[in-house]
Amino acid sequence: MTSVHPATPKSLDDEGIVAAWHQNARPWTQAVRDGRIESRRTVTDRAIIEAVMSRQPGSVLDIGCGEGWLARALAAQGISVTGMDVVPELVEAAQRAGGGTFCIAAYADLAAGAILNRFDVAVANFSLLGDTSVDELFAAMPQLLSVGGAFIVQTLHPTAIARGEHPYRDGWREGTWAGIEGDFKDPAPWYFRTLGSWTRLFRNNGLQLLEIREPVHPGTGSPASAIFIAACTA
Ligand SMILES: C[S@@+](CC[C@H](N)C(=O)[O-])C[C@H]1O[C@@H](n2cnc3c(N)ncnc32)[C@H](O)[C@@H]1O
């Protein structure tokens, strides 16, 4: 399988995202495994596991799986998990820790048919960061899901967190490692989408939004994320 070639992490585009994750694979793995990201520990890890388990899946595709924590958590519930990510170092870390089958692939590779199996659930946990790469992935989703399968996406909440100082419209943003200790290099840029844009992405790709969950952080009283649960209708 091919992978996208790194550009520079400073470029505000899909290649910049991949370049940044190549550079930050090691500190990211450390930070996730040490539980250094407070919102994950307190709210979002449990929220995404509950969202996936609510579908009672036999098989799950973990899209942009990183070092594989979610695959391991789901495998521990008896689910057959396939994880994919564009960064070889992250996939190798996931493979070493076990719990699923992992492969190196970019979202463009999925769109090109790199994975032929179909899954009860495809889940993307804070991994849909780009613009065209995400559009391509959504277009591929109907061919990756079983009949009645679901696509579940956890992302920064468009109004509670993700907007920041910017106007409320789609566009590229610079990333930050603020609040996460570690020996990080340049953070990945990311593409902000309004709530309306997210819902259009699902609808325009044969996916019916069933639910939007907004898990609230007990400390701040604000949503820590948005979780979209959509069923494949194509
Ligand atoms: C914030 S991390 C989340 C990792 C994991 N889902 C988790 O919950 O810890 C984002 C992940 O998306 C992956 N990613 C970003 N763009 C990608 C692309 N175009 N193809 C494949 N993986 C991609 C990165 O390599 C990184 O592992």
Describe this structure in words.
- The protein is of the alpha/beta class.
- The chain has helices at 14-23, 25-33, 38-53, 69-75, 88-97, 107-111, 132-144, 195-203, and strands at 59-63, 80-85, 101-104, 119-125, 145-155, 171-173, 190-192, 207-213, 226-232.
- The strands form two sheets. The chain has a seven-stranded mixed β-sheet, with helices on both faces. Strands 6-7 form a two-stranded antiparallel ribbon.
- The two termini are 26 Å apart.
- S-adenosylmethionine binds at residues 17-18, 21, 32, 64-66, 69-70, 85-87, 90, 106-107, 125-127, 129-130, 133.
- The site of S-adenosylmethionine has 21 residues, from helix 1 and helix 4.
Give the helices and strands, then pairings:
Layout: H1 14-23, H2 25-33, H3 38-53, E1 59-63, H4 69-75, E2 80-85, H5 88-97, E3 101-104, H6 107-111, E4 119-125, H7 132-144, E5 145-155, E6 171-173, E7 190-192, H8 195-203, E8 207-213, E9 226-232
Parallel strand pairs: 1-2, 1-4, 2-3, 4-5
Antiparallel strand pairs: 5-9, 6-7, 8-9
The structure holds S-adenosylmethionine.
S-adenosylmethionine binds next to helix 1 and helix 4.
Which short descriptors sum up this protein?
seven-stranded mixed beta sheet; binds S-adenosylmethionine; 8 helices; two-stranded antiparallel sheet; 23% strand; alpha/beta; disordered N terminus; 234 residues
What order do the strands of the largest sheet run in, or round the barrel if closed?
Answer: 3-2-1-4-5-9-8
First-last Cα distance? 26 Å
Largest sheet: 7 strands, mixed
Number of helices, where a helix is a run of at least 4 consecutive DSSP H or I residues: 8
Strand content: 15-25%
Shape: globular
**Category from helices, strands and their pairing:** alpha/beta
Q: Which ions, cofactors or small ligands are bound in this entry? A: S-adenosylmethionine
> Could you name the ranges where pLDDT drops below 50 across 5 or more consecutive residues?
1-6
Count of β-strands: 9
In helices, the fraction of residues equals 25-40%
Q: For the residues shown, what is the average pLDDT?
A: 94
Radius of gyration: 16 Å
User: Secondary-structure element sequence?
Assistant: HHHEHEHEHEHEEEHEE
